[in-house]
Design a protein that fits this description.
The structure is a single chain. The protein has about 240 residues and is α/β, with parallel strands linked by helices. The protein is built from 8 helices and 13 strands. The chain has helices at about 15-30, 40-50, 65-75, 90-100, 110-125, 165-175, 185-195, 205-215; strands at about 10-15, 35, 55-60, 80-85, 105, 140, 145-150, 155, 160-165, 185, 225-230, 235, 240. The protein has a 5-stranded parallel β-sheet, sandwiched between helices. It is elongated and about 50 Å long.
Length: about 240
């Protein structure tokens, strides 16, 4: 018996009805399931009621804005997020990528480009290029930390204290844990964590490294675990063991 292929379901969250309706119609026309929400409250209700494969999320919304929503959802799970930002709002783009968005698209946008971005994100996830990679389902020990990949938390073996990770931090850390003592350039890290190339002056990876260091280093100003290699990039300078 042939298994029915999965049809990806997309949720569009935008306070502009014209954009919601137009994008929903376009995605349905191109073979997706699609639904929409006007704000974070309606989005939460629809996420609770059904399963979605990807979220198209506007940054500027009344009530809880898109960046806050992205940060909240990224800390809870693996729902891919494509953010819509106002043209020229580079700060929103950078912050969005830092806190876990998979990609961004500035408004106004071409529907065909939106479709291409959605397909690219879904392809990356379907190829198991999700955050945990080969470490999925394991507890991993490095230095004075244990990472629970299922729960996305760092555990201090001595105190048993737990430190939660955002989606972006988790993706970045697992990339390092899969390649201990290898020097990884900024371009490599960006490609491995989000599947995209760096732009000129793109500081996304540097900012993510700083955030992660504040959680795992004894002294984030003098890092010993994730070290900087001059002219090369970054390196996890410790051994890794699966428990």
């Amino acid at each position: 018996m042939t298994e029915t292929p999965h049809i990806p379901s997309i949720l569009i969250v935008d306070d502009h009805r014209e954009i919601r309706d137009a994008v929903t119609r376009y995605l349905k026309k191109n073979g997706f399931r699609a639904d929409s929400a006007k704000d974070a409250v309606e989005m939460d209700a629809k996420l609770a009621a059904g399963r979605f494969d990807l979220l198209v999320l506007d940054v500027m919304m009344p009530g809880e804005d898109g960046l806050s929503v992205c940060r909240r959802l990224s800390s809870q799970g693996q729902l891919p997020i494509l953010m819509l930002t106002a043209l020229g709002e580079e700060t929103d783009r950078i912050i969005g990528l830092e806190i876990g968005a998979d990609d961004y698209l500035p408004k106004p946008f071409n529907p065909r480009e939106l479709l291409a971005r959605i397909k690219a994100i879904l392809r990356r996830h379907s190829r198991n290029e999700l955050a945990a990679g080969t470490l999925s389902g394991h507890k991993v020990q490095f230095a004075n930390w244990t990472l629970d990949t299922d729960r996305r938390v760092l555990i201090n073996p001595d105190t048993k204290a737990e430190t939660p990770l955002t989606t972006a931090e988790f993706k970045l850390l697992t990339v390092f844990l899969e390649r201990p003592r290898f020097v990884l350039s900024r371009d490599q890290l960006l490609d491995l964590t989000s599947g995209r190339s760096a732009h000129v002056f793109d500081r996304t990876i540097d900012n993510q490294i700083s955030r992660l260091r504040r959680k795992i280093e004894t002294d984030a100003g003098r890092p010993e675990l994730i070290t900087t290699v001059r002219g090369g990039g970054y390196c996890l300078s410790t051994d890794v063991k699966n428990l």
